[in-house]
Amino acid sequence: MKRMLVLEDGTVMIGKAFGSEKLTGGEVVFNTGMTGYQELLSDPSYAGQIVTMTYPLIGNYGINRDDFETMKPAINGLIVREACRYPSNWRSEFSLHEFLKIHEIPGLEGVDTRKLTRIIRRFGTLKGRLCSLEEDPEVIASQLSSMPEDKNVVQRVSTKSPYASPGRGARIVLVDFGMKYGILRELTKRSCDVIVVPYNTTAEEIRRLNPEGVLLSNGPGDPKDVQEAIEMIKGILGHIPILGICLGHQLLALAGGADTVKMKFGHRGSNHPVQHLETGKVYMTSQNHSYAVDEMSLEKTPFTVTHKALNDGSIEGIKHNTLPAFSVQYHPEASPGPEDANEHFDDFLQMVKNFKRGITNAKAL
């Protein structure tokens, strides 16, 4: 069965349908990872988006039970050059096609993904829709260009009520803005006593849990849409050590008086080089974000830039000059990707210990 992709600029691409027969629209983005499609499909940060994979063959090792980042995918669609129908891997339980069908995610294969990626790189992220050949592309393109931005993506993917992952180590409150399981795994691996709370949990509610640290998770959408979280961070900053990851990084910056901007086409992939400015060390990182902290806006804030992307110079990490708080734009838990930056979880827990001993400034990262 044929299916087409229509972009808001009028571009039409026709290919073969796979996955679910359900048709949907969303922001069309691209991911440069060669592997990790299962983690990508189950990453809540892709909520509402249609993802184009730049690597030409996707699905060759199937879907397994261990590599999910959440149990309920929020992605709106997947576009590939070729979808493997017969995966070969000892852990595989489903093919890519079967997984997408079960979770009602439409797929499109057989289109020129290199061309589509170049369109996005040239014109920026575009809205698109996967639809049947019977629909009028001009009408769809007109509808897409007037479609408002989705403001409720974090609300959709965040947990609705708190839950615990008990441990005998430091008590950490993990604020779920669309959390990947990889973050929780890294904390539990370090014996942390983790309490996961919804995105709109207040500062007072967090303080009542008596945490030794607060981790602000990744998540989808525009950080300025999550005003509840910005107010919460203002209420705990300086009182409880903070680590922000991805969306959590942007929210920490906003709470400290900085600004964020939407990037032309964002960073998505498991191969993005980031440099630590103080040591010169370069990390290969996993990334997935549309927004970035505006560097100029940091000048009048109490934050120092710690990391930058080598590809485009965008801000990848900040730390507070006097209080125990730091954040990174990339994913130290990887999932998927290299584990170069995994040490940031240890830095966070060391900062928690230092704070308990009366050392209040963030560790030099």
Automatic annotation (TrEMBL):
E.C. number(s) listed in UniProt: 6.3.5.5
Sites where the protein binds L-glutamine: 45, 219, 221, 247, 250, 288, 291
Keywords, alphabetical: Amino-acid biosynthesis, Arginine biosynthesis, ATP-binding, Glutamine amidotransferase, Ligase, Nucleotide-binding, Pyrimidine biosynthesis
Domain Carbamoyl-phosphate synthase small subunit N-terminal: 1-131
Pathway(s) of this molecule: Amino-acid biosynthesis; L-arginine biosynthesis; carbamoyl phosphate from bicarbonate: step 1/1; Pyrimidine metabolism; UMP biosynthesis via de novo pathway; (S)-dihydroorotate from bicarbonate: step 1/3
Segments of this protein annotated with the region CPSase: 1-171
Recorded GO MF terms: ATP binding; carbamoyl-phosphate synthase (glutamine-hydrolyzing) activity; glutaminase activity
InterPro entries: Anth_synth/Amidotransfase, CarbamoylP_synth_ssu, CarbamoylP_synth_ssu_N, CarbP_synth_ssu_N_sf, Class_I_gatase-like, CPSase_GATase1, GATASE
Annotated catalysed reactions: L-glutamine + H2O = L-glutamate + NH4(+); hydrogencarbonate + L-glutamine + 2 ATP + H2O = carbamoyl phosphate + L-glutamate + 2 ADP + phosphate + 2 H(+)
Residues of the active site: 246, 331, 333
UniProt-listed GO biological process terms: 'de novo' pyrimidine nucleobase biosynthetic process; 'de novo' UMP biosynthetic process; glutamine metabolic process; L-arginine biosynthetic process
EC supergroup of this enzyme: ligase
Pfam families tied to this protein: CPSase_sm_chain, GATase
Family annotation (SUPFAM superfamilies): Carbamoyl phosphate synthetase, small subunit N-terminal domain, Class I glutamine amidotransferase-like
Function summary: Small subunit of the glutamine-dependent carbamoyl phosphate synthetase (CPSase). CPSase catalyzes the formation of carbamoyl phosphate from the ammonia moiety of glutamine, carbonate, and phosphate donated by ATP, constituting the first step of 2 biosynthetic pathways, one leading to arginine and/or urea and the other to pyrimidine nucleotides. The small subunit (glutamine amidotransferase) binds and cleaves glutamine to supply the large subunit with the substrate ammonia.
PANTHER family hit by this protein: CARBAMOYL-PHOSPHATE SYNTHASE SMALL CHAIN (PTHR43418:SF7), MULTIFUNCTIONAL TRYPTOPHAN BIOSYNTHESIS PROTEIN-RELATED (PTHR43418)
Record-linked HAMAP family: CPSase_S_chain (MF_01209)
Family under the similarity heading: Belongs to the CarA family.
Oligomer status and interactors: Composed of two chains; the small (or glutamine) chain promotes the hydrolysis of glutamine to ammonia, which is used by the large (or ammonia) chain to synthesize carbamoyl phosphate. Tetramer of heterodimers (alpha,beta)4.
Record NCBIfam families: CPSaseIIsmall, PRK12838.1
Name of the protein in question: Carbamoyl phosphate synthase small chain
Source species: Lottiidibacillus patelloidae
